[in-house]
Amino acid sequence: MSHLQRLVEQAVADARARSAQPLPAPPGPVRPFPRAGLIAEVKRASPSRGAINPSLDPASLARAYQRGGAAAVSVLTDRVGFGGSLDDLRAARDAVELPILRKDFIATGDQVREARAFGADAVLLIAGAAPPETLRELRVLARELGLSVLFEVHAEAELEIAAACQPDLLGINARDLRTLDVHPDTFGRLAPLARGIAPLVAESGVKTAADVRRYRELGASLVLVGEALSSARDPEAAVRDLVRS
Q1: 150: containing domain
Q2: Whether residue 1 has pLDDT greater than 80
């Protein structure tokens, strides 16, 4: 079993364990998700790095990102691999006016409905996390709930699935979630083949202003930055530096 399969199975099991609890009312109307700019991520840990910032305050961090000029905030809600929670999602949503992405290993409708209930404006769908038909059904459900969809791929073979799902944004992840290895050339290789599906988001390995400029030159409309911002001593300044680039 790959790392991705294990993460999906655990995330689905966690969602099933929560299913007996009634969902809260959504905190407000869905906010439009941007098509350009920086997505700054609230990330306590990761399977590849381990602890990043376990004691972070999602509300304070989200406010720092907003002051720094981020276009949106991504919140890791996966419990086992990333130390996140739906409470982190709600705290970030309540703290800022920016749109919020729920980043998790989503493979069921219940997880999409949770995202809306806890304040997400967009959800992540990963090409390898579920069968293509399930991913299309989740895309339809997200649209019915008013949520935008960031659809993530890592390989050329996944682009056809992405196109069929008609996402609002197409993420190209340099990290292969099956092995957790990073391949820095992934975006440059896939971007020319992916144009026309949706605005492109560069994911993983974005740490410096030079990285942002390189991805912009390769065709990225947005960049998603997690570890470098969640671990920064001054996240507001770190975001501002990347946005200015």
Answers
A1: 3-244
A2: no
